[in-house]
Here is the input.
Amino acid sequence: MMDFFNDTVAGLFNYWIVFGLMMIGFYTVIAHDNLVKKLIGLNVFQTSVFILYISMGDIRGATAPILIDGQAIYAHPLPQVLILTAIVVGVSTTALGLALIVRIHEAYGAIEEDDVLAADFATQDAEDATEQARSAQARATEPHAPADADDGAEREESRPS
Here is the structure.
């Protein structure tokens, strides 16, 4: 019974942490309307993926892949390299997200998703009304051709039978 506990619960502790962090990050992204909170949730989710890769790449008793005299178990360096690259990408994604949030706040005056969408729809409605007014004004001021002018369309002529 103790072996079962060590193999399933305590032995897989890293994976339980990964699962918990993933669910916390996913919930934060889905449940909150605040864009900063969504970005933090995305970072928590991303961190859980980092921990997952590092946990999978861990070999107990392994050493760094440096040649040593004698028999040694080497850890594969690829998971660590991938995680270093992912961390750099994650930091740049976070910086870009924060820059976009600042621009959204400057443009709409809010960082709540519902407020931004409402302001965007109001702006779109105002732009549509302005465009319709411009189109109507352009049609009114456009010179019209006389009714008997040739518009280039071919007409069917009736032939006497």
Observations:
- DSSP finds five helices and no strands in the chain.
- Residues 9-58+76-138 form a domain with the Helix Hairpins fold (CATH 1.10.287.3510).
- Residues 57 and 76 are 7 Å apart (CA to CA).
